[in-house]
Amino acid sequence: MEALFIFIIKSSGLIALFYFAYFFLLRKETFFNSSRWFLLAGLITSIVLPFVVYTKVVWIDPVPVPVDYAPVVNYHYTPNYHPQIAQEESFEINWNLVSLGIYALGFAAFMIKFGIDFYSLNSVLKGKKVEQQADFKFVDVEENIAPFSYFDYIVYNSSMYSESELESILEHEKVHSDQHHTVDVIISRIFCILFWFNPIIWLYKKAILQNLEFIADNEAAKKISDKKAYQYTLLKITTYETCVAITNHFYQSLIKKRIVMLNKNQSKKWNYWKYSAIIPALGAFVLLFQIKTIAQEKKELKEKTEKAALASIIQDGEVYKITKSTTDQELKDLTAKLKSEHNVDLEISNVKRNSDNELIAIKIRVVKESGKVHVIDMNSTKALKDCSIVIDKDEDGTKNVTLVTDDEIGNPALAQNHDVVVRNFDSDVTPEDRSSPVPPAPPVAPIAPVFPIGPMPPAPVIDMSKMPKPPVAPASPKDKVAWAKFEKEMAQFEKKMEAFEPDLSAYEKQIDAMMTQREAIFEKQMEKYEVAMQKFNFDMDKFSQDVEIKYGRDSQEYQRSIKQYENDMKQHQLDMKQHEKDMKQFEKDMKQREKELKKWEKENSKKS
Prior knowledge:
Residues 572-608 are annotated as: Disordered. The protein is of the alpha+beta class. The chain is built from 14 helices and 14 strands.
């Protein structure tokens, strides 16, 4: 949907660009044929150019982030699950669909109009006698319509014109037919249907039709000896305003401009430079809107960075490699060695081999005494790539166990960010005696603040006993002296009423100050709420990582935690919608308060 709107905006902009270039630079020039192709090129460009996108690749140096397999922090969440109450979502207007619906209605209406015009044209031509002369088909009709051409058809009513006038008209229409001007008319009409909402396209169509008439007038005048008689024919035809749409008809409302262009001197050839003025504008359009920049990291430098980072870890620690040719006995020895020397439980399962006794599947689980489990699960139809178990120490003596896969250590790649912290301590508890870990509970989403409400200050009280009495109008409408006296008394009464009416400015200031104070309190609460939401999102990311590391992405506990997170986010969205409702209700209350104040003022004025 967004791509469609962007295309329409770009196309409309290009149409406007070509139209204004024609209007300000070319409209008064006599290069009619060149202007014809310029205007058609503008329509084609407006459709094609938005699809022409130049992709620019910018090579950047990769961020030298070391492969620091930091220990995973074990967040101890307290169980705090809350049941979610399903609330009915409020109706929201999809403005994209509304806009698309409005566009479709306009498109359908103009398409129907286009079909009706074709039907009207067919009604005029149907059943008429056609006279073939050279490449033209002449149709003499009895209807009172202006002469027109439609492809190779030239339609006219011979009874309405003299012989010399008919000759001028036919020469004019032959130019339209011979140069296929009907194609220009149909193309401009199609663009008007596609971009019916754009007022520029209607002006563009008018410019195309006007320029076609200039071409036909110019060519016809060359073949007619009496140019003045041709101009008189133009003036005569203006009295017949019944025209058939989607045709090149001899009648046009801009007769004055056509006569002016007939008598205008030919433009100088050096004015052709004006056509090239559109090129810089198109270049600017491409540079601003049609260049897509893609940033890519330099692959070689990135590989070297990763390799150097992994090498630094391998250099400081111990590496136990498992290759495709590692035997089952070697796997058992590796498990025993890691347990005895580093107090690390290594479990190997799902071992599969091919006919060459090479490993094609293996699952490696590194288990910490706390119960954390980190897994590399590889399965393929071909021999597996090598993987390594890297054990190094931090400055405080803490051991870090990392599982990585590599291609002969030539291009290392982290299989999963599975990090295990192993501390040196003595314990007699075996893995079989450990109880299953307690699943962590997700953090609770903060509650959205509510706009503070409270009683409003009372309006000032008016002592009606002190209200001045209005003067009595004279009984006789013809008594001018009495009416003059009455008008003076009314003027004095109005001044007294202005002095009597209470000063509401202080009351309004009091209301504004109270609302400003409440808005300030609400904004501070919203700032705290946004900070709390950021912390909530961060905690949820950590929680998801912790659950995934402990139970694996396919476990029921992980799926349950993700579902709980989705429920929390839905509740948050519902809270925000409720907050919007509260704000709208507050605005309604304020408007109601204003209405009551106005009503109170009207009642006081009536009583006066």
